[in-house]
RNA sequence: UCCUCGGUAGCUCAAUGGUAGAGCAUGCGGCUGUUAACCGCAGGGUUGUAGGUUCGAGUCCUACCCGGGGAGCCA
């Protein structure tokens, strides 16, 4: 039997007879001519059937095809400017592998709710396909960068005995009669990993039971969390900017065509993302907000509008560092210059995409952490293993967490986070 | 939890308080280079639910249900 050719490689078979398999993406028929656009996951190929050149029964079967039916087609390949993709196939034989009737996603507009209800089918569409390819490349870029930098992947558990950061936004589940929670960060485990491997990271799904209904939130999202022994705040910022700019560079290299032609992204906005990134202290940011007419009070965390205003004047991501300790997690190191502040840093994406990274330097001091755990009213028993890291050779260290979907959303320039993940989980969406 | 908008054909949407409609999809017919093809015909409805006002309610009122967008919180 003739081997199957993937459409992305069809150009290598110019002038030959080839066999392709895929799904009917579009169909246009006339009395003596029919065009079938075939989709196989790697590309689109226009197949032409001409009545008279093939027998009438075969031509009838081509005309009777329906959207998204799965077929096997053989035909001769030839270059043709009129065909999308530059190559066209002259049909010789057709075999239907799986029929499709009344495919729900028609070639006209649909609402997001309807499309999300059919997410399992929507993924076949051009734009969604492009977004998943982009996501794939971002994941590969993340792993390759950390690998090159000497990081070891140390997977953090998904079932956890308590909150990493003590908020009340955990999904609770039964664990053989005990309570367990779905992880909202692998952070604390990475601190243990940093003491074992020096440079470590985890990359997996995390869960937040926040009842958020915004374009920037999912209840299940993917986060990459590197942690580095002996790193201070400046080291972390330097690592973050190299990390982010290398991801952008990789995406521009491998997905430029999809970004430009399918996602219609303004490429120049991504080309501007080069290290070093601008740095603003929290104090300076508050002053900027006040000067800009925002009634923002020192001590709070920034809202979406504040973040947009701050990042607006820069063409690349913006670091805001040294937030008040009150608004950050209990394990953040205090600023030795000002006890009200923490050695924390957020990275804000341009164009109003907001926070894509949160991180900073962790406290190495056992007494301080004990005090913080009490202050945040966290159950000390649950943190004994974590405190051991300070009892047995404590060390300065820092790290950060990058939200994968926020990064993909920003790179793709799309309006909503939910299209940056194959099957989004949101407050009102658990299916498909 | 709060603010705001919405729920009418399979989908996207129309419809001064007065016979519920269009485009797409589907079925049938036409067309030899289509690019979300085009042209003609046809079928398709308990207007989210319950009550109320009215001669008459998709439209006005009340309650409830469901969802979109945003806020807070965060990545």
Estimated radius of gyration: 26 Å
User: What share of the residues does DSSP label as strand, in percent?
Assistant: 25-35%
Strand order of the largest sheet: 6-10-11-18-17-16-13-12
Mean pLDDT, rounded to whole units?
91
Secondary structure category: alpha+beta
Please report the distance between the alpha carbons of the first and last residues: 37 Å
User: The biggest beta sheet, please?
Assistant: 8 strands, mixed
Contiguous runs where pLDDT drops below 50 for at least 5 residues: none
3D shape: elongated
CATH top level of the largest domain is Alpha Beta
Tally of helical segments:
13
Q: Helicity range of the residues?
A: 25-40%
> What is the level-2 CATH architecture name of the largest domain?
2-Layer Sandwich
Task: Tell me the number of structural domains.
Answer: 2
Q: Tally of extended strands?
A: 18
Name the CATH homologous superfamily of the largest domain.
Bira Bifunctional Protein, Domain 2
CATH topology of the largest domain: BirA Bifunctional Protein, domain 2
């Amino acid at each position: 039997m003739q081997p199957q050719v993937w459409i992305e490689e069809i150009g290598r078979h110019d002038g030959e007879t080839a066999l392709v398999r895929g799904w009917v993406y579009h169909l246009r028929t006339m009395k003596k001519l029919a065009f079938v656009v075939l989709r196989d996951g790697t590309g689109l190929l226009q197949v032409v059937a001409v009545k008279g050149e093939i027998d009438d029964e075969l031509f009838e079967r081509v005309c009777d095809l329906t959207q998204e039916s799965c077929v096997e087609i053989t035909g001769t390949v030839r270059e043709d400017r009129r065909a999308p993709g530059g190559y066209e196939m002259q049909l010789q034989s057709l075999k239907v592998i799986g029929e499709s009737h009344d495919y729900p996603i028609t070639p006209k507009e649909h609402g997001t709710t309807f499309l999300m209800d059919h997410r399992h089918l929507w993924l076949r569409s051009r734009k969604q396909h492009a977004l998943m390819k982009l996501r794939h490349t971002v994941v590969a870029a993340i792993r390759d960068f950390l690998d090159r930098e000497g990081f070891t992947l140390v997977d953090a558990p998904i079932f956890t005995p308590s909150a990493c950061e003590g908020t009340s936004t955990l999904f609770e589940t039964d664990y053989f009669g005990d309570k367990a929670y779905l992880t909202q960060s692998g952070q604390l485990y990475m601190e243990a990993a940093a003491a074992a491997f020096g440079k470590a990271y985890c990359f997996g799904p995390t869960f937040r039971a926040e009842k958020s209904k915004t374009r920037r939130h999912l209840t299940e999202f993917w986060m990459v969390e590197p942690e580095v022994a002996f790193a201070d705040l400046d080291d972390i910022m330097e690592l973050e900017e190299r990390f982010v700019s290398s991801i952008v560079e990789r995406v521009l290299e491998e997905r430029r065509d999809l970004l430009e032609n399918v996602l219609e992204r303004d490429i120049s906005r991504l080309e501007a993302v080069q290290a070093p990134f601008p740095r603003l202290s929290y104090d300076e940011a508050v002053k900027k907000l006040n000067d800009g007419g925002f009634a923002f009070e020192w001590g709070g965390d920034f809202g979406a509008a504040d973040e947009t205003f701050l990042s607006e004047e820069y063409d690349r991501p913006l670091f805001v560092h040294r937030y008040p300790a009150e608004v950050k997690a209990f394990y953040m190191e205090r600023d030795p210059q000002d006890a009200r502040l923490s050695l924390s840093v957020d990275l804000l994406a341009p164009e109003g995409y907001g926070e894509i990274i949160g991180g900073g330097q962790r406290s190495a001091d056992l007494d301080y952490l004990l005090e913080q755990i009490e202050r945040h009213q966290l159950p000390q028993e649950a943190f004994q293993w974590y405190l051991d890291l300070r009892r047995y050779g404590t060390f300065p260290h820092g790290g950060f967490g990058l939200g994968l979907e926020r990064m993909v959303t920003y790179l793709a320039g799309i309006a909503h986070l939910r299209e940056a993940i194959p099957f989004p989980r949101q407050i009102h969406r658990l299916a498909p």
